Amino acid sequence: KPGASVKQASAEISAIGGRMEKQFPDSNTGRTYYAISLHHDLVGDVRPALLTIVSAVVLVLLIACANVANLLLARANQRRREIAIRTALGASRLRIVTQLLIEGVVLAILGACFGLLLAWWGIDLLRLFGPRDVPRLDDIQINAVVIVFALVAAVASTLLFAVFPALQVSRPNVNESLQEGSRGAVGPESHRARSLLIIAQVALSMLLLAGAGLLIKSFSNLRATNPGFEPSQVLTLDLALPRAKYADLPLKQQEFFERLDRRLRTLPGVEAAGGVTPLPFSGNDRASSFWIAGRPDPGSGNHPNASHLTVMGDYFRAMHIPLLTGRAFDSRDGREGMPVVMVNEAFVKKFFEGRDALGQHIIVDHAEKAKDRPLEIVGVVGNTRHESLAIEPIPEFYIPFAQDPDRRMYLVLRTSSEKLTGLENSARGAIHEIDRDIYVPHLKSLEELIGITLAQPRFNMMLLGVFAGVAMTLAAIGIYGVIAYTVTQRTKEFGIRMALGAQRSDMLQMILRQSFSVVAIGLAIGLLAALALTRLMASLLYGVSAHDFSIYALVLFVLSAAALVASYLPARRAMKVDPMVALRYE
User: Fold this and answer.
1) Which residues lie across from 272 on neighbouring strands?
2) What gap in Å lies between CA 563 and CA 441, rounded to an integer?
3) Looking at residue 437, what DSSP letter applies?
4) Helix/strand/coil for 253
5) DSSP characters for 69-95?
6) Distance between CA 73 and CA 553 in Å, rounded?
7) CA distance 129 to 463
8) Region 481-503: what's the mean pLDDT?
9) Quick one: angle between helices 423-434 and 250-265, nearest 10?
């Protein structure tokens, strides 16, 4: 309706669905109805992934800014004497702050330009490794809008994080800073500021690493999921007969595909051949409504639905789909034979509550003279996943091609080797022997089709993993820089301690203990944030909880180890300090 919102339409559809469930509970119980916008239908599947990636980019930017702020703070402390002289000569605080901010902005612009060069180079990698179903992936480019945004973001973030160091050192104690030999000693405010920045870096890194760990485990679970068939050494061919010659001619369609099926079985290296429409993981699906003979007819438009597949030849053997009970289709199931159907385990569980379904009959609505031709269930096969490894198997029924001909079939060839030279040409030749006017596309492996459905989760995992690695590296560099600066500032103190009898190991333990007290706070905050926020990634996860203990334990260990190494390297310098040299250190 004109002017109606998606929310209003969804509410109206939901109300209609509720009335249908009350009137026809057998076919509508448990169903939900809602409306979505066309925009959501186009980008809805990738929206959660894109939001997660954008969030990761923001977190990495914040970690980098915290790192830069720490460096600027250390640099500003080193310049206390210079700033004190400028202040003594009459420089205003505003002038000093402005100078320091301008220096930071220059660095930001140079960094942004370098980042844009990396982005320009990285776009090709993004297109290469990115999933094909991301809307307008090929249209990504570095244009004027991107350049302006990058420069503005760089300058804004620098101003935000550089203003605190600038304000801190712009009001020095002139007399103290101008004393002979002053090294710009570190005050408690600077120490607290650096500690807070380290805590922020560690916490944000914890959040990113937890998200990356969950995606890695989720992807690993997806890869290990059994699709219900054996995809290795299976080649597929999507073959559509010309509409002008074969449309509405079922006998001609049947004759062509049956001849082709017999010919394909004789090709060298082919162990089994068959056909199906639609093929699992082909991106196509077909559902038909039906009802079970012997039960009350719920009426047209209220029949239950199930996935409807048409199969030909040795499809089940070629796919290694197990036959659980009954028999597979054979020569008895021709066009003039008794109408038959095979169903999967999920079908039996849902519509027969797990009881024996052999010998039962279903009536498919689309079939010619449906009520006069009930289909007898002659076999039950194992469940297969059709759209994605992440989607649980749904009820399916299979009808033999001779009784349900179609102009389009996906040919399935199980080969004796993963690489058979010349098989594609042989298959093309077999098709053209029957009809030279048919276009023959390239063969595709079933593993390749499954891999396409894994492209998006693989892409999410790779990007978030890269961002998490960058975040951990930046955090480790930040910890190293702070500890190194602290060791340098406290060299004289260490000399005095050792002159009074402190052991070198005592100095090392003291530095590591002080470092880890800060890191531990960051880890605790990061853990709480991760537990609260990773649940927003639930739609991207498969077979793993957003609060998976093993992932959080591993991330805590990895970050702690990185912090230990980053703290130990500069702390080791304190152990090598000669007390006499340290006492003279200025």
Assistant:
1) 414
2) 55
3) T
4) helix
5) HHHHHHHHHHTHHHHHHHHHTT--HHH
6) 33
7) 10
8) 77
9) 140
Hey, where are the domains in the chain?
Answer: 6-35, 42-225+454-583, 242-437
Return the residue matching tokens 């702020």.
69
Give the position of tokens 């060298």.
Answer: 268
Overall pTM > 0.90: no
Residue 225 phi/psi, 5° resolution?
-70, 135
Kindly state the DSSP code that residue 461 receives in the 8-state scheme: H
Report CA-CA distances (Å) from 189 to 74, 264, 485, 518: 12, 80, 15, 15
Nearest to 190 by CA among 64, 63, 80: 80
Q: At what angle do helices 455-489 and 446-453 cross, to 10 degrees?
A: 50
Tabulate helix, strand, coil % of the chain (nearest 5).
60, 10, 30
Q: Are 26 and 161 in contact (CB under 8 A)?
A: no
**And the tokens for 265?**
């079985």
d(CA 263, CA 257): 10
Task: List, in order, residues 6 or more apart from 253 with CB less than 8 Å away.
Answer: 241, 246, 405, 406, 407
309 strand-pairing partners: 398
Per-residue pLDDT tens over the stretch 414-426: 998 777 667 888 8
For residues 326, 330, 336, 339, the Cα torsion angle rounded to the nearest 10 degrees is 20
Compute the distance between CA of residue 481 and CA of residue 463 in angstroms, rounded to an integer: 27
The CA distances from residue 158 to 56, 171, 319, 391, 478, in Å, are 19, 21, 58, 45, 16
- Within its chain, how far is the Cα of 75 from the centroid? 40
The pLDDT tens digits of the residues spanning 290-333 come to 888 888 877 766 778 899 999 999 999 999 999 999 999 998 89
Pairing of strands 375-381, 305-313: unpaired
Closest CA to 231 of 282, 180, 177, 288: 282
